[in-house]
């Protein structure tokens, strides 16, 4: 099994051809988009009304009560596509992880060895001191990924998806695989321009790849009302074009674990909490006012941009996370539009470990096994720039330091 698909040699020509084919398939392209636009206006208005009433747009759950979550809370997560789960880990444990990460970086002289490398995401990491640290194998990261609490949360979230449809079982929601990612450490007093609105896991691929066309089959059949953003059908068969921003795994939810207190005004994650907005994005690119070789600014090798020029109806719904504390976890549907707010003069630290939900399926298992090999070598995982800082670092865990779940997540058992 391969984790990438060969990219077209002529993207403008490929886009023109795909748009012609998809328009023919949709039929009444303007009518389908008008239908989705009306739905989006209703959803955006509902988000704005919630905010005006002072309600939390993000569903907030307590980890201790996860087994007793009622249908009203479940319906809120389905509608909003995001959640904060408080107390996934005790505050003291998260704060100790934060301190251990500082020690791990310091004793291996990360600051002295760091070299700027553009990773292709909105201009790459900032030159000088980074805020996104390209380390993957520290003790805290390995412990958090394989902790029973984390496994319980990810299993709970996977359960919002249809894992069996179209006569097939697409993934096992109760079984974890690893998708090792980085950490963010933004220091007090820092200034950050944030990240503009975008979606991950594919840009031009969402229109060009046959597997993605199957994922969005109802949208491209001119029946966007039938599109279910929680249907896992064909998602595990998508293999993106190779780049440093590709994702080789199917993530039901992207997520991170808070290692510090963060307020909604301190340059935090924001989302458009409307999972079905993907139907709008897909049909928007097929409208007559978009150039024939353009997909509303989508560029291979970059995240899919969401802009005022093409998607102004959606952006008023961008909503920041509520205040979070160390040990809380933050989750958003893998298709959700998200951004990171700008901040000037950061108050306190803003530290997180990126840990998504990636259930077991052949695609995820294959990538996790490759990550297991990278873990043994201390190398960067294949989806990320090959910076490989940790190959010689002291204090890096070994397989003997992992619990059975941690070894199984990486295909080491």
UniProtKB/TrEMBL annotation:
Name of a matching Pfam family: Gig2-like
Region (Disordered): 389-413
Domain of life: Bacteria
Position of the signal peptide: none
Protein name, UniProt field: DUF1479 domain-containing protein
InterPro entries in the cross-refs: Gig2-like (IPR010856), IPNS-like_sf (IPR027443)
């Amino acid at each position: 099994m391969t984790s990438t698909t060969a990219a077209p040699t002529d993207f403008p020509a490929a886009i023109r051809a795909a748009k012609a084919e998809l328009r023919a398939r949709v039929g009444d392209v303007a009518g389908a988009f008008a239908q989705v636009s009306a739905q989006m206006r209703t959803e955006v208005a509902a988000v704005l009304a919630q905010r005006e009433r002072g309600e939390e747009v993000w569903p907030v759950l307590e980890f201790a009560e996860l087994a007793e979550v009622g249908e009203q809370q479940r319906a809120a997560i389905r509608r909003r596509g995001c959640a904060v789960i408080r107390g996934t880990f005790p505050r003291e444990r998260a704060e100790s992880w934060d301190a251990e990460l500082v020690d791990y970086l310091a004793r291996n002289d990360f600051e002295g060895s760091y070299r700027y490398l553009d990773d292709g995401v909105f201009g790459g990491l900032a030159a000088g001191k980074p805020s996104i640290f390209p380390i993957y194998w520290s003790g805290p990261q390995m412990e958090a990924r394989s902790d029973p609490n984390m496994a319980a949360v990810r299993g709970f979230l996977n359960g919002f998806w249809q894992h069996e449809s179209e006569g097939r079982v697409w993934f096992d929601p109760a079984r974890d695989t690893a998708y090792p990612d980085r950490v963010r450490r933004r220091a007090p007093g820092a200034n950050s321009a944030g990240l503009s609105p975008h979606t991950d896991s594919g840009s031009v691929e969402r229109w060009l790849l046959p597997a993605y066309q199957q994922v969005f089959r109802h949208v491209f059949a001119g029946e966007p009302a039938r599109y279910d953003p929680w249907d896992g059908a064909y998602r595990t068969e998508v293999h993106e074009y190779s780049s440093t921003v590709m994702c080789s795994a199917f993530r039901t939810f992207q997520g991170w674990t808070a290692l510090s207190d963060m307020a909604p005004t301190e340059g935090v994650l924001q989302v458009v909490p409307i999972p079905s907005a993907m139907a709008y994005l897909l049909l928007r690119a097929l409208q007559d006012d978009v150039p024939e070789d353009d997909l509303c600014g989508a560029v291979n090798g970059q995240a899919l941009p969401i802009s005022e020029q093409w998607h102004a109806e959606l952006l008023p719904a961008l909503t920041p996370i509520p205040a979070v504390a160390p040990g809380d976890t933050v989750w958003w549907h893998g298709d959700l539009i998200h951004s990171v707010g700008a901040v000037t003069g950061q108050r306190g630290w803003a530290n997180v470990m990126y840990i998504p939900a990636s259930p077991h399926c052949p695609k995820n298992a294959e990538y996790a096994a490759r990550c297991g090999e990278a873990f043994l070598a201390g190398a960067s995982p294949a989806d990320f720039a090959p910076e490989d800082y940790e190959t010689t670092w002291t204090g890096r865990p070994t397989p003997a330091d992992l619990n059975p779940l941690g070894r199984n997540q990486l295909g080491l058992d």
